[in-house]
């Protein structure tokens, strides 16, 4: 049986979620980071 990168990624995400770690898309993290940095510079 072949195990693809996508299957590995999905399996690891499932394991981490089972341990209580939330899954957040990288794009969402980047957007939140940009919002925080722009709010710091506008003060």
Key structural traits:
43 residues; mainly alpha; 2 helices; 70% helix; elongated
**How many beta-strand elements?**
0
Distance between the termini: 56 Å
Question: Helix/strand/pairing class, anyone?
Answer: mainly alpha
Helix content: 55-70%
Estimate the strand proportion: under 5%
The biggest sheet, with number of strands, parallel, antiparallel or mixed sense and barrel status, is:
none
Helix run count: 2
- Sketch the topology as an H/E string, one letter per element: HH
Q: Per the principal axes of the C-alpha atoms, what is the gross shape?
A: elongated
Radius of gyration: 16 Å
Residue-averaged pLDDT = 84
In total, the number of domains comes to: 1
- Regions with pLDDT < 50 over 5+ consecutive residues? none
């Amino acid at each position: 049986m072949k195990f693809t990168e996508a299957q590995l990624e999905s399996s690891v995400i499932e394991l981490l979620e089972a341990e209580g770690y939330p899954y957040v898309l990288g794009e969402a993290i980047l957007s939140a980071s940009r919002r925080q940095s722009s709010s710091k510079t506008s003060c």
